[in-house]
Amino acid sequence: MSDAAVSSSATSPVLLSAVGLEKRYGRTLALAGVSLQARPGEVLCVIGPNGAGKTTLIQLLAGIVFPSAGHVTVFGLHRWKDNFAIRQRSTVLLADPIVGASPTPYEFLRFMAQIYGMPKERFLERTETLAREMALLDHLHKGWEELSLGMTKKAGLIGCFLPPADLRILDEPFAGGIDPIGMEALYRWMDAARGRGETIVFSTQVLDQADQVSDRLLVLREGELVANAAPEAVIRQAGVDPAEPRALARAFVALTGGGGEG
Amino acid sequence: MRRPWWAVAKGVIGAIFSLLGFCLLNIVWPLLLLILYFAGEGGAWMSVFAVLISWMSGVYYAKRIAVSDDRLLSMTTPLTARTYHGNNLRRVAPVFLPGVLISAAGCIALLVLPPPNLLTDGTTPALALNLALSVTLCLVLPLAEALSGMVWTRLFFFPRFLAGALFRRGFWVLTAVPFIVLLVTMVSAPDRLAQWEERLLDTGLLGQVVFTLAVPFGGVARFGAEGTSAAVMLAAQATFLAFCVTTIVRHWGREKPELAGPAFEDWTRLRDRVEDIETEALDQRRQRPRPALSNAAEDGFAEPAPELTEEEQAAFSAAVAGARSAHPPLAYEPFHTPERQMLRHWRYWAGLIGTPPPRRLWMSWVAILWVGYVLVRWAGWFEPGFAPNGPGNPFAVLGLLQVLTFLGVWAGCALGGSILLFGRTGPARWTRFLRRALEMAWRRWLIGDVLAAVLLADAMGGHLESTFLYLAMFVLLRAALLSGRVVYSSWRGGRRMVWRGYVFCAMIFLAMTWLAAPLMPVVGAIFRSEPGGPLALDPGDMGPLVAASQCLLMFLFALSGLALAAWAIRRNGDQVIR
Description:
The complex is a heterodimer. By secondary structure, chain A is α/β, with parallel strands linked by helices.
């Protein structure tokens, strides 16, 4: 993202705001006082070691679980009090795509289009475009058990990018066995969404993807947000030279306290 | 931030509605049955069955909620109840509506039109209404469930100790023990059976024709009218019980049988072809000029197989691939001998017959039969001298009450479930627990077949012989339904479409019954055309004739289902069965 774009987004209104988010599962503290903001056209990437709280943060932002403390506002609305209004303008992709009771990907996508009130022509046109880009067009009418894991994930991704939305929240969109074709398509979709002024929050474990598509990295360590900045700034924050090979990986290890990388 | 008050309030409201539905389904309704039953004739085991059946139905719906991921869909999208139900209606309407319309038309015709010639004596529109409504409910109930999707009762408050105690270990025992008590009661009280038979015969045959027309396979009860000795009955019951136990044990903790598909001949042919290719390739290798014989060969050891060149390996792979491409759906397993494949083949067909029936349809069916049975008894239809057309006949009112109660129960459950589904999130650990517990419970339920057979036989006159006939027919119908599931899922694909396959086949069967029923008088007229001839039958003998015709239809349906299944498997291979 260019500096001009960064500066313009910095002046735009806050679309997503989380303040002091805390989540406890019993005695386990999954998330400890995380605060963040996202503006229109921003792509935020949540990274962190296993168990750092990425999925919990995504679920909190998506309104699936209640926080133990703190609050979230989206579009200036209360995340849970005005949940329905928020859901009308946002899409969510969980790690395991939710396909409901639909027997085929096409039925699932049509159901999604109905849920979001898309016109039929628009649904058909957009589904064809997205499915072709994902190389899923020939598999839309197959049963789920005939599809591979990656194809199911692709269907979930299409369902997430099918309806118009101002906010898209994705948990591990690059995981789940999607092939390079799907990854490239996802990159394009994210770029296009950013160009349309949509906000994307996603989590991943692959730092190359985080570096390529995100404007800002949120680095979690044991439930705490240890970095919240552009990729280069995160690298510098960790004391790593951005010109080094695998600089982001080194920065990640340094910030999250992993061993082996010095 | 704690969960806000309005979320808690919505949850509480949802829980109240869900509790209401649960109570209606599992407490009020069984109690109503109990009261109705004792208003007629006594029999504690019947009430036990009523409670059990109703309770199991409720638990089943709870399981449906627990395993569904529509809950998450409603959390992450602006899914509304209207869209949700509308989508379900659109999906199931083509399957359900014909049957519903046919049944509704039948009800209206029975009420409005003058009775046909065959149904003049002793047939009342009210009785026909009751029975036709029972059949209609068989269709309306799944429809109502489909309309509400999978949002019935989310029993997060279901007591854990109860679920753990009853479902995990002793559930099948709890169902088997009353069944054994029932068998002993029925065998040790032949006088009671004789009494029932007498009362049934007193009602006249035309009433049974109505049963035959309204209730599929109802007329088969007439086959058991001659009675059988107690020793034969005991032996048969013991055999039957052994069958039940072995079936239950067979399904205990096991996965579905290994399904291969009846492509044994094709498989053998393919295997021979591959062996030919292998032999040919080996011969070619052996004809290749070799270096001098090794010491190993001179020592009498086997000659080491020559190495394949890359070209030979590629040619061999291409030949095998070519042979396989002629049988694309066939899973060629070189490690399976033909005998092993035949075993899989046999297990498939054994599984086809022995797999438990579609639960929802069956339990609804059994519950409705039992309700109809209780109502009929309470109304005194089995009592000698009962005048169906007499004043004060409660059938019409009871039939309406039956419909309203059922619909009320389902609507209450749907409403409560909807509020829960669209109103709040749920603790995942409860759903996981319920899913595990209930799945274990519902694997052991061949007893449902037995209950259906016993209750149906009892409702149709109390002949023990009829029980076996019904059971055999249930198994046949189950085979047909399972075949239909295979066929239907091969058409549309998807495990989640399976239940629609059940309904699809049930619809075919019911449609065939309804379509064939008006033909019965025609057949009878043909037989009656030669008075005094060897084939001459009195009008009163039409019951067995109709029953025989229905039996034939059922067998034909089962056979056609199996044939369709074979076709589907040959077409799609193992993938159609999951």
